[in-house]
Amino acid sequence: MSITVKDVEHVAALARLELSDREKEQFTEQLNAILKYAGQLEQLNTDDVEPTSHAMPLVNVMREDEVRPSLPIEKVLLNAPDEEDGQIKVPAVLE
C-alpha cells in the first residue's frame, strides 16, 4: 500500500487544511516512508513475544488508601449554602 497525493489532499480536506503543492508532495513522501518502515516491522518474527498494552511496565504512583476519621457533620455543614436533614441542599438541576 502506498499513499498518493490524492490521499493527502483528501485527509487535508477532512482536517480543513490548505496545503501547497510542495507540502502535499512532502507529506506524501513522509507518509510513504512511515509505511515502508511499518512494512519492515511486519517482517520480524514475533512468535515468542508476549502481547503487551504498554512498552514499559506500569507502576501505580498513587499512595495507598488509608482509613482516616472524617470531619464531624456539623463542621462540614458550616460551609454548606443550605442544609436539610443533615445533608447539603443544592438547587435542583433537573425539571
What features would you describe in this structure?
- By secondary structure, the chain is mainly alpha-helical.
- The chain has a domain at 5-42: Orthogonal Bundle (Histone, subunit A), CATH 1.10.20.60.
- The chain has helices at 5-14, 21-42, 73-77; strands at 83-84, 87-88.
- β1 and β2 (87-88) form a beta hairpin.
- The longest helix has 22 residues, at 21-42.
- The mean pLDDT is 91.
- GO terms for molecular function: asparaginyl-tRNA synthase (glutamine-hydrolyzing) activity; ATP binding; glutaminyl-tRNA synthase (glutamine-hydrolyzing) activity; transferase activity.
Terminal Cα separation, in Å?
A: 55 Å
CATH top-level class of one domain: Mainly Alpha
What would you give as the CATH superfamily of one domain? Glu-tRNAGln amidotransferase C subunit, N-terminal domain
Report the count of strand segments: 2
Question: If strands are numbered along the chain, what order do they take across the biggest sheet?
Answer: 1-2
What letter string, H or E per element, gives the SSE order?
Answer: HHHEE
Poorly predicted runs: none
Name the helicity range: 25-40%
Task: Assign the CATH architecture of one domain.
Answer: Orthogonal Bundle
Task: Give the helix tally.
Answer: 3
Subunit structure: Heterotrimer of A, B and C subunits.
InterPro entries: Asp/Glu-ADT_sf_sub_c, GatC
Keywords: ATP-binding, Ligase, Nucleotide-binding, Protein biosynthesis, Transferase
GO biological process, one term: translation
